[in-house]
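Input set for joint prediction.
Command: fold jointly, output tokens.
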Amino acid sequence: MIEFRNVTKLFPDGTIAVDDFSLVAPSRKITVLVGSSGSGKTTLLRMVNRMVEPTSGGVQIDGEDIVNERPVLLRRRIGYVMQNAGLLPHLTVADNIAAVPKLCGSSHRAARTRALELMETVGLDSHMADRYPSQLSGGQQQRVGVARGLAADPNILLMDEPFGAVDPIVRAELQQELIQLQRELDKTVIFVTHDIDEAFLLGDQVVILATGAKKLQVGSPSEIIENPADDFVAAFIGVDRGRRALRIKHTPNGPVLVDTEGRTQGTLVEDER
Amino acid sequence: MGWALDNLGLVGELTVDHLRQSAIAIMAGFVLSLPLGWIAWRYRFLRSAMLATTGLLYTVPSLALLLILPIIIGFPATSEANLIIALTLYALAIMVRAVADGLDSVDSSVRQAATAIGYGGGRRFWAVDLPLAGPAILAGLRVTAVSTISLATVGILVGVTNLGYLFTNGLQRRIVAEVLVGVVVVTLLALLIDRLIVLAGRVFMPWTRRPRGRGRNTRTAAVSAAT
Amino acid sequence: MNLLADAIDWIMAPAQWQGPDALHLLVFQHLYFTGLAVLIASVIAVPAGWAIGHTGRGREAAVGISGAARAIPSFGLLILLVLLLGVIHKPEAAMITFVILAIPSLLAGAYTGFEAIDRSVIDAARAMGMSEWQILFKVEIPLGLPLLLGGLRSAALQVVATVTIAAYVNLGGLGLPIITGLALRRYDMVLGGAILVAVLALAVDGLFSLVQRLVTPHGVRTSQGIARSSRGPKNPTAVPVRPLVKQEGRK
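tokens >
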């Protein structure tokens, strides 16, 4: 469990990135922070591994204040996946993944074995182990980034718009794989994105943020769609348009669902239970 | 200090000579480097040959060049023209590469966009390629200016009078102040010309002013965010 | 062009390779001055440049000092130091001059090498749990090495060319035949000396380009432009080490 307790972040240039923010991210669930740029979502994420220190307030992991732990050790037990993968260009794929276990004191051989294992987990062929990041596609780099995030078998995974820079087809693929992966691994994940569809797809808990990390609404995707807190949230998630504003149309073959553009999106089926 | 005040006239005269010799060489190097740099950039096969030649030229010790050049071109070694030509050659060695690299640095999508909106080859060079290569060319010009002004002092060894006179004369007569004044005046002159080039760059390339400051801000923000 | 032939004859003459001023001794002196000066300058400038590159602090000061140091005429500085330190300390005077000459390039090579590294790479290293020292030694120094060597290369070349003037204060080196030839109006000597300095400079340059290729980290090599990026010191953000995907997109 990760708990933000009244955290505030004031940057030296005077901007208030985060203003008195509190939240509990439950264990073994994916919490998605979603908001447009400037909403302070990345700042919040980076407070968890002390890449950013809050000006006031604090973050607790399983009830322990993280300020009591050395940042370097804290970061080694928290996985971090970032937008452009952030791979070290002078290390091979396997060495990139093995870097964290090695920092934690694993032997070279054990770290390499672990790296090869993880490459399989994230769907990378083992013959890529000795390639350099510059020889991979964007999607492959991102897989290496995820594998590296998982390398030290952390309980917590922080993901900062990890799929933001890949094309939509690869992004959809990676999103599905993350869902699969989470079913097996059960990590506590905090995921940052500006894409509301991604947030609803991946999040167990979705937090909609406005400037200064102001919480507009917190809840499961269903709760938010069914009962948006205000007009702004309704507009932000688009309940009044596209695929989220469906109405029933009766056809000779039974009822179907139609979006605001008049395009049929699916059929209405009876609940089995 | 006393020596400088007593010899203000001499120092002034030598400074004017020095400035004239260096300025002509810097300007000649700059003007000639534009077409040469463009050729080196445009024709790949000439590029390595041209850059190797200018690079080789740069390895020739200045004193030797000053002595050998007159034999090749027929000027007397002691003439100002000899020094100016030698300095121009050194300037070219730096500038041709700077111009070629500058043209390289122009984003090809910008170049394509310019072609797409209807710029012809020649107009595109003057209106798009050259201004965008400007910052890199300016950086080269600054290096050229500073090194030319410093290098010119060697001219005194073949008998071309300029601020270098204060060095050799000071050594012969063992007047530390004279040599010191020479070093200080040459250094200040180089820094002054460098400053003027930077200012000229700001005037002629106003779009380069902002991003540099902004880059620094984001960088310090990143650093402070990280600590 | 029989001056060139004369110069080569002069170099080839057995007399040049004997006695206290034998050419191989002058070459050795020249290399000794160059090597020692670059070494001393490296010990001073490289840690300083790395500190600036790592912390991002002191850059303005470094640029200012480098600019001023570049503007000082080496010829005048050498004479000034000889007069100030006295005739007995001529070698020290020469060494100080060459060290000052070498520092700006080395300093710039060290910190631009760090600045050219994509910020996200450093960020990722920190997020992985590397300590500041680990970031320095495992990420910044290896990735900054190609640009540092570029700085080392240009420092060495500048010093090789400038050591020639050491002969003006009787310190030997390959400037000796040039200075003597000047006094005697013996242009074969002048050109012969010049040829040897140029050959030496080209050899040093070739050696460095080889070393530069060897130390460029694997994986970075595929993204070209390492050697070229050592120019354009004003725009360090333009030379990031980026994944190939982006470059492909741009072409």
